[in-house]
Amino acid sequence: MFKTLDDIGSGKRVLVRLDLNSPVEDGIVKDNRRFARHARTVRELVEAGHRVVVMAHQGRPGRDSFVSLDQHADLLAEYVETPVAFVDDICGEAAIDAIRSLDAGEVLLLENVRMCDDELPEKPPEEHADSEFVRTLAPEFDCYVDDAYSAAHRSHASLVGFPLVLPSYAGRVMQAEYEANTSIANREFDGPVTMVLGGAKATDVIDVMSALDDEIDHYLLGGIVGELFLRAAGYDVGYDVGDGELYDHQWENNEARIRDLLAERGNRILLPVDLAYETDDGERAEIPVEGVEKTQPLLDVGSQTVERYADVIEESAAVFVKGALGVFEDERFADGTVGLLEAIATTDCFSVIGGGDTSRAIELYGLDEEYFSHVSIAGGAYVRALTGQSLPAVEVMAQDDC
Ligand code: 3PG
Ligand code: MG
């Protein structure tokens, strides 16, 4: 499919694109699994005696999370266990000087690549390859490594421009994510394939369901999308409560598709039979879906639902998770999400856990990543891969014939 780190050799000048895009709170960049994952690729490059220059992005212009990468350098250094120098420039004189003064085995991180005007326009690879940014940096390197799978759905200069002008290789994260996330489309499983679908982005989930059909034997629904399907099935569930805005507009945008899916695949779609809410005393309580009233805020699936879903998982050969079943950040409402993850962890099936937040539940509740075949660090790219869409940055790597 693409060449990997095994094919580079040693002692080269390597430009590597990582995805270190992280949550930022009050200007502080939060540590997260992207640093640990990408550190493996960087460490391998260091050990092979390459000069390693890292490109990455953070936030978008206009957002609070659009900050410098100086803090990222320190976080990355901890995981790579080697110093990571930082230069607050991308392709100007300061950056070129810093790149040229690197020694073998040294690592340099360039400034937030989205601070360069050439980066962000969504353009075809050929146009990006011809940008001043790519034309200035490329001659400083022998090859390009793309490890930023989770940004591969963006046709940005740092992702699609360089593979046209430099020999290109997939990093370890790119390799692992590509293989796991495309397995619905590319692999045969010896038994039922199940999808656990939840989270707050109902439209994404419905896109996934619409794009897949015969590949999936069971859909287990929770979160906002689970409630919207219950609404379609005639329950008083899935309505905005108070001044909330999560349900009604997603319902309006997707009602027809939800009704069609339920009519055509109702026998394969399992919906929650009970849900959890917060009592006046701040406790978790559960209620069968028949008993819910439109005015009741719901925060998780109930224990009967978890039991039913766990039975399906035990019979599955493969399970793909996209989105959480409840508001797991609050310990009282984590039972659904964590219960399902535990069922997957203890079943001998091929399993992929994705959708940014869901993988955070693994961390938060001390589940071991080793129990899953793959825990994705991608959001938008994961959804597109599940639905069989190609990703511009992956496509251009696969075509590489430099
Ligand atoms: C992400 O964190 O989702 C990726 O890095 C892509 O970032 P973007 O959604 O701002 O393009
Ligand atoms: Mg995103």
Automatic annotation (TrEMBL):
InterPro entries given in the database record: Phosphoglycerate_kinase (IPR001576), Phosphoglycerate_kinase_CS (IPR015911), Phosphoglycerate_kinase_N (IPR015824), Phosphoglycerate_kinase_sf (IPR036043)
Binding site for substrate: D19, L20, N21, R34, H57, Q58, G59, R60, R114, R154
Top-level taxonomic group: Archaea
Reactions it catalyzes: (2R)-3-phosphoglycerate + ATP = (2R)-3-phospho-glyceroyl phosphate + ADP
Principal cellular location given in the protein's record: cytoplasm
PROSITE patterns membership: PGLYCERATE_KINASE (PS00111)
Pfam families noted in UniProt: PGK
Keywords assigned by UniProt, alphabetized: ATP-binding, Cytoplasm, Glycolysis, Kinase, Nucleotide-binding, Transferase
Record pathway: Carbohydrate degradation; glycolysis; pyruvate from D-glyceraldehyde 3-phosphate: step 2/5
Subcellular location: Cytoplasm
Binding residues annotated for (2R)-3-phosphoglycerate, in chain numbering: R34, R114, R154
UniProt signal peptide: none
Molecular function as annotated in GO: ADP binding; ATP binding; phosphoglycerate kinase activity
This enzyme's EC code(s): 2.7.2.3
GO cellular component: cytosol
Binding residue positions for ATP: E329, G355, G356, D357, T358
GO BP annotation list: gluconeogenesis; glycolytic process
EC category: transferase
Family: Belongs to the phosphoglycerate kinase family.
Subunit structure: Monomer.
Protein name, as recorded: Phosphoglycerate kinase
UniProt organism field: Haloplanus aerogenes
Gene: pgk
